[in-house]
């Protein structure tokens, strides 16, 4: 393949960053602080990424606010006040905007602009990046901060274009208020987004039909206002708490995991542990024992506990049975965190429809047909998920060395070294890419680690007058093997999850994130850097960036 020619008139900068979510914002702050010129392109109308798009009713983070926030600035973490244990989407978006304002980031972010394509020019060690406006920018580095859950996916249902009512996707929710009052609403899907939105929609709709193909495990959030005392406890010791979350935890979230497995306890004691986890609420339920994600028998005890809770909460035994997951170990798909989800099925205006036994056949002008039954609907909410981890990268036509396309290289599944770079694509970094802890972790912890590592790497290159960094095939092959090996020692691959690409027809089934834990992973990345960036080849002269004055 032939490399495309670079347009000599293109404006230039040191780094183009794709996306102005939490990763893009911190990248801009960090790289600008290192003296690099940075241009951020964001397809949305504002900053915030995931939290800009996912504004469906009930949307909130399932990691606690005091931990789902940046740690890079002591002033920022001391001054920002979260209102609730789990922050609602509008507050997280406000936080993203606050960060952008506070650090004067907007001036280098171009909104409403997609990056359409990018091509590497090996003679100059530079990328040409083409945006949706047709503008071409030349940059030494291309950094994909495109997010892991940002490519919303609506299944290809027959008749969808004939539906006369309104349709919504949870991951692409309108910015105007949506009021379902007096409407017959259908929600398709029962993943995390559906589980958060169903109780809220049920409050508004005259009738809500929930079309469930696969039930998921959900534990209560026990969301509440954050008292000044709790906030103060965190802030008094924030730096140390953050350090422990970064270095010592499995997923970037501080939680206490007992040094015993589920089968080490007798039944009654085990039930007490699970009750305590259930009453604590949130994803730390999975920390009730240390072997829930590696031992099927241990895991089954937790599954059985949650199933028993569902049976207790849901009055109709047939509905309860349908809501009880039986096809995957608990936690092998991301566990959901809810407010009143199971209880919602006791409402007279809510009907659970099993589309496993009777699949959705087609969308009708006035509803949908599933299992031979017609459901009349005014609105349909698709809570059908995302082409996760690789979907947003795949939308950009990225050409690396010799014009090879990233989509072509990743046709059998994503291949990276450390989740940070892919061989054949020099000077291109991915934030929380496949092969890193990413979606298995507190995303902000993983984002900060990647951005800091990249910052250090670019400083190293500048200090040594180097212009090109590229992962070697050998290092990449070894890392892919390591990622697979670690995953295969756990229960995760047993679930048909979006971690595996299983929700996208035709997508290769590969466990995408690195599951060895954020502390271990951070150490591996630090060791690689300490060994002179082992597994990477660094060559070339630094290409001088010119100014962005032409923009
Ligand atoms: P998920 O977790 O991917 O959930 C998507 C849901 O949509 C899931 O219940 C799917 O059922 C369902 N789905 C998808 N296609 C269909 C069709 N064709 N028919 C019926 N049902 C369908 O996405 P979310 O947005 O809820 O959550 C994503 C992540 O965001 C979450 O894990 C958190 O980390 C935050 P299936 O299981 O495929 O049978």
Explain the overall architecture.
- This protein is an alpha/beta fold.
- The protein has a domain at 5-151 and 388-548: FAD/NAD(P)-binding domain (3-Layer(bba) Sandwich).
- Helix content is 31%, strand content 18%.
- The chain contains 16 helices and 20 strands.
- The chain has helices spanning 22-33, 50-53, 74-79, 89-102, 192-204, 228-236, 238-247, 267-280, 296-313, 317-323, 341-344, 391-394, 406-409, 443-463, 473-488, 518-530; strands spanning 11-18, 38-41, 109-110, 115-121, 126-131, 136-144, 166-169, 184-188, 207-212, 218-220, 336-338, 350-354, 360-364, 367-370, 373-376, 379-382, 397-399, 428-430, 466-471, 536-541.
- Strands 1, 2, 3, 4, 5, 6, 17 and 18 form an eight-stranded mixed β-sheet that branches. It has a five-stranded parallel β-sheet with strand order 7-16-8-9-12, with helices on one face. Strands 13-14-15 form a three-stranded antiparallel β-sheet, with no helix packed on it.
- Strand 5 and strand 6 form a beta hairpin.
- Helix 1 (22-33) runs parallel beside helix 14, helix 9 packs antiparallel against helix 10 (317-323) and helix 14 packs parallel to helix 16 (518-530).
- Residues 544-551 have low confidence and may be disordered.
- The site of ligand NA7 has 22 residues, from helix 5.
């Amino acid at each position: 393949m032939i490399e495309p020619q670079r347009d000599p008139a293109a404006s230039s900068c040191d780094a183009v960053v794709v996306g102005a979510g939490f990763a893009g914002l911190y990248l801009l702050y960090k790289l600008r602080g290192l003296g690099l010129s940075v241009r951020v392109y964001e397809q949305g109308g504002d900053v915030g990424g995931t939290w800009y798009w996912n504004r469906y009713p009930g949307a909130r983070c399932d990691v606690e606010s005091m931990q789902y926030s940046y740690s890079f600035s002591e002033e920022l973490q001391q001054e920002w006040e979260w209102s609730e244990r789990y922050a609602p989407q509008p507050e997280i978006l406000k936080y993203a905007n606050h960060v952008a304002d506070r650090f004067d980031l907007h001036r280098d972010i171009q909104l409403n602009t997609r990056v359409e394509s990018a091509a590497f020019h090996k003679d100059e060690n530079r990328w040409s990046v083409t945006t949706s406006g047709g503008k071409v920018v030349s940059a030494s580095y291309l950094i994909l901060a495109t997010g892991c859950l940002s490519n919303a996916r609506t299944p290809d249902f027959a008749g969808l274009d004939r539906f006369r009512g309104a349709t919504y996707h949870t991951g692409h929710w309108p910015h105007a208020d949506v009021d379902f009052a007096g409407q017959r609403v259908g929600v398709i899907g029962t993943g995390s987004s559906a589980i958060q939105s169903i109780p809220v929609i049920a409050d508004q709709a005259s009738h809500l039909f929930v079309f469930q193909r696969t039930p998921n495990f959900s534990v209560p959030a026990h969301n509440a206002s954050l008292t000044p005392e709790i906030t103060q406890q965190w802030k008094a010791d924030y730096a140390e708490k953050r350090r422990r979350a970064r270095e010592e935890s499995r997923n970037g979230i501080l939680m206490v995991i007992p040094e015993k497995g589920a089968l080490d306890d007798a039944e009654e004691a085990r039930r007490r542990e699970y009750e305590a986890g259930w009453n604590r609420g949130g994803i730390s339920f999975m920390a009730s024992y240390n072997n829930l994600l590696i031992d099927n028998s241990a895991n089954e005890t937790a599954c059985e506990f949650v199933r028993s809770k569902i049976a207790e909460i849901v009055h109709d035994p047939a509905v309860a049975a349908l809501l009880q997951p039986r096809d995957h170990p608990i936690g092998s798909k991301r566990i959901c965190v809810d407010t009143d989800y199971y209880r919602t099925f006791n409402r007279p205006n809510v009907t659970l429809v099993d589309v496993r036994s009777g699949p959705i056949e087609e969308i009708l002008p006035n509803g949908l047909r599933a299992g031979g039954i017609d459901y009349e609907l005014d609105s349909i909410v698709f809570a059908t998920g995302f082409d996760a981890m690789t979907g947003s990268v795949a939308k950009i036509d990225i050409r690396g060395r010799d014009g090879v396309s990233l989509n072509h290289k990743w046709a059998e599944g994503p291949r990276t070294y450390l989740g940070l770079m892919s061989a054949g694509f020099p000077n291109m970094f991915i934030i929380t890419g496949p092969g890193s802890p990413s979606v298995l972790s507190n995303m902000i912890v993983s984002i900060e680690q990647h951005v800091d590592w990249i910052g250090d790497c670019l400083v190293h290159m500048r200090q040594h007058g180097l212009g090109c960094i590229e992962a070697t095939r050998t290092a990449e092959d070894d890392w892919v093997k390591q990622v697979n090996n670690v995953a295969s020692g756990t229960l995760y691959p047993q679930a048909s999850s979006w971690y595996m690409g299983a929700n996208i027809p035709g997508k290769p089934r590969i466990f995408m994130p690195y599951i060895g834990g954020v502390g271990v992973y951070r150490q591996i990345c630090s060791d690689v850097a300490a060994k002179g960036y082992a597994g990477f080849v660094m060559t070339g002269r630094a290409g001088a960036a010119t100014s962005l004055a032409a923009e």
